[in-house]
Design goal:
Layout lengths: L1 H16 L1 H7 L4 H11 L3 H7 E2 L2 E4 L2 E2 L2 H30 L9 E6 L6 H7 L2 E5 L5 E5 H18 L3 E4 L13 H18 L12 H24 L3 E8 L17 E4 L13 H9 L2 H19 L12 H6 E3 L5 E4 L2 H5 L3 E9 L6 H5 L3 E3 L2 E3 L2 H18 L2
Parallel strand pairs: 4-7, 4-8, 8-12, 9-11
Antiparallel strand pairs: 1-2, 2-3, 5-6, 9-12, 10-11, 13-14
Helix pairs in contact: 3-10, 7-15, 11-15
């Protein structure tokens, strides 16, 4: 362990040694500028506004070098502890012990719809009739939750402490159904209006769809972030299943399939307000982005080996990857400014395992012959869970 610490300090020395001079001039190290331009700032316009004459401007504020120095030291200590855990994991593996003992992993199964009406509100379901008259209907939330539950079991068997952001397939991150939330909102709306003694009340509560779009969606995502950060995991896996954006409204299958993963980054200048400063600095000053890319690459490699799903090609037809993301240099992995990829602290892989509307997948995903918890889903989720599991194990073993 002493040898490791000496090597770590030696590798960081040049970076740390530059701080006194840079701090005196209130300038940022060139390595930070490189990382910001490569992963964090989406275009040249954002780069010029955020990085002005070697000063960092966030939400209209010039970030002081005292803040940079303090945060950098914090993140370096955290990185050192993370590397020590990886070494312990390797040692445990060599001596036949549970390798993930002492490792905390958060799993976030995307969405929450447990029935068709709620899935329609979320817009996260596949329903179509194929050319051979096969009726297709399944929910992304069920696929994601079942995958997370199977993955949780696998990781716990290896000694990990695992947390799911929603414990039941039909629950939101608040551990109740969307319908329960909506009814609480309606009751509260009526009480507030009665308290205001409006006799000729014309105001009406939002309908379920409006409530989801205007109030609940962001609130529920924020709850996921809160739960994960309170848990303080060593890594977070966000589990989603994708669709081809060019195939909307998804009433027919497409003849291809691919996986992808997101890490934090790709900010527009307008994206960085008061509440985003901490998120941006965390991605800039820590090694979380590089480690998230490493983890995501191993997970996509295992998707290809175990589930036979290749990462999306660099040249592709998905417009949002070009408009909203930055390519990390690793096939299938993109920086993207999503709340979960940005605000969750630490190492994050936001996975999109396959295309639900792919003709290679759609019938398999429709075969609900595997029971996980209280729901029946496709056995395909077992392969996806295994791909995540093997990718996570490969990361911790340093393979």
């Amino acid at each position: 362990m002493k040898i490791f610490c000496i090597c770590f300090i030696a590798n960081c020395w040049a970076f740390l040694d530059s701080f006194p001079q840079l701090k005196a001039q209130n300038l940022l190290p060139p390595t930070m500028r490189q990382q910001a331009f490569q992963y964090l700032l989406k275009d040249e316009k954002a780069q010029k506004k955020v990085w002005q004459d070697s000063f960092l401007i966030l939400a209209g504020k010039k970030i002081k070098m005292d803040t940079i120095f303090s945060l950098s030291a914090h993140y370096q200590r955290r990185f050192e502890k993370h590397q020590e855990k990886k070494i312990i994991c390797k040692i445990n593996h060599l001596f036949g012990k549970k390798p993930l003992k002492g490792i905390k992993i958060a799993l976030d199964p995307g969405h929450f719809a447990g029935d068709l009406p709620t899935a329609r509100i979320e817009g996260k379901y596949i329903q179509m009739t194929l050319a051979d008259s096969t009726e297709i209907l399944f929910f992304e939330s069920h696929l994601a939750w079942a995958t997370a539950k199977l993955l949780q079991n696998k990781l716990q068997e290896q000694g990990a402490n695992v947390m799911l952001t929603r414990s039941q397939p039909h629950f939101t991150a608040f551990e109740k159904t969307f319908q329960e939330h909506y009814q609480e909102y309606v009751e509260d709306f009526r009480k507030r209006n009665l308290q205001m003694k409006r006799k000729n009340l014309k105001a009406k509560p939002l309908n379920e769809s409006q409530f989801f779009q205007k109030i609940f969606r962001k609130k529920e995502l924020q709850e996921r972030v809160r739960k994960i950060n309170d848990f303080a995991p060593d890594m977070t896996i966000i589990i989603h299943y994708n669709v081809d954006e060019n195939n909307a409204p998804w009433k027919k299958p497409v003849p291809y399939n691919f996986s992808m993963a997101f890490v934090g980054g790709a900010f527009d200048f307008e994206d960085i307000g008061e509440s985003e400063i901490e998120d941006f600095l965390g991605l800039l000053l820590s090694k979380d982005l590089q480690l998230s890319i490493q983890l995501s690459e191993k997970i996509l490699q295992k998707h290809q080996k175990i589930a036979q799903i290749s990462p999306i090609e660099i040249e592709n037809s998905q417009k949002f990857l070009k408009e909203k993301c930055l390519f990390t240099g690793k096939k299938g992995i993109y920086a993207r400014n999503l709340l979960l990829s940005r605000a969750v602290k630490g190492i994050v892989c936001y996975g999109e395992s396959l295309l639900q509307d792919s003709e290679q997948e759609i019938k398999r995903l429709n075969q609900k012959t595997l029971q996980v918890g209280s729901i029946w889903v496709s056995p395909r989720v077992e392969e996806i869970a295994e791909a995540y599991f093997q990718g996570i194990m490969s990361y911790w073993r340093g393979e």
